[in-house]
Amino acid sequence: MPDSVSDAVSGAVSGAASGATPAPGLADLLAAMPLASHLGVTLDEATPEATRGSLAWSAELCTVGGVLHGGALMTLADAVGAVCAYLNLPAGAGTSTVESKTNFLRAVRSGGVHATARPLHVGGTVVVVQTDLRDDESRLVGQTTQTQLVLTPKDRS
C-alpha cells in the first residue's frame, strides 16, 4: 500500500508535469488516501491554484453533543491540502507533510464541511498550503496551514 499521495500517483503526475501522460483524475487522487476515502471525504476540484473537497456530517464522525470531531475536520483539510501541494510539485518529486496546524473556529452539528486549499508558498524545498473549512452556510469553521516537504527523486531512494 502506498504511504502517501505522492507514491500512489507519482507516475501519473510526473508524466503530467512533463506532458507525457494526462494528470490523475479526482478518483485516482482520492484513492491514494484510503483514510480520507473511508471517512467520506470527496474531492470536487483539483488544480494547482485551488483544490476543493467536502465531508458530510454523520453521527459516526462526531464527538460529544453531535459535534463533528476535530480529527475528521483535520483529515478533510489534510487530504485536500496534500492534493493541492502535490499538484504544485516539480516533475518527478514527491511530498510529505512536515507540519500542520489547525484552528477550530465553530462547531459543525449538521450538514457538511467544504474545504478550499490554496498554496501560500511554492518553493524548491517546501510547499505551504492554507485550507479554509466552511459549513453549508459558508461560515468559516476552521483553518489549517500545512507545510509539505518537496522530495526529489534522489531524496526518495
UniProtKB/TrEMBL annotation:
Pfam families: 4HBT (PF03061)
Keyword Transcription regulation: no
Thioesterase domain segment(s): 65-140
One GO CC term, this protein: cytosol
InterPro entries: HotDog_dom_sf, PAAI_dom, Thioestr_dom
Domain of life: Bacteria
Keywords for this protein: Hydrolase
Gene Ontology MF annotations: 1,4-dihydroxy-2-naphthoyl-CoA thioesterase activity
Similarity comment text for this entry: Belongs to the thioesterase PaaI family.
NCBIfam families, per the entry: unchar_dom_1 (TIGR00369)
Record-given protein name: Uncharacterized protein (TIGR00369 family)
Organism: Streptomyces eurocidicus
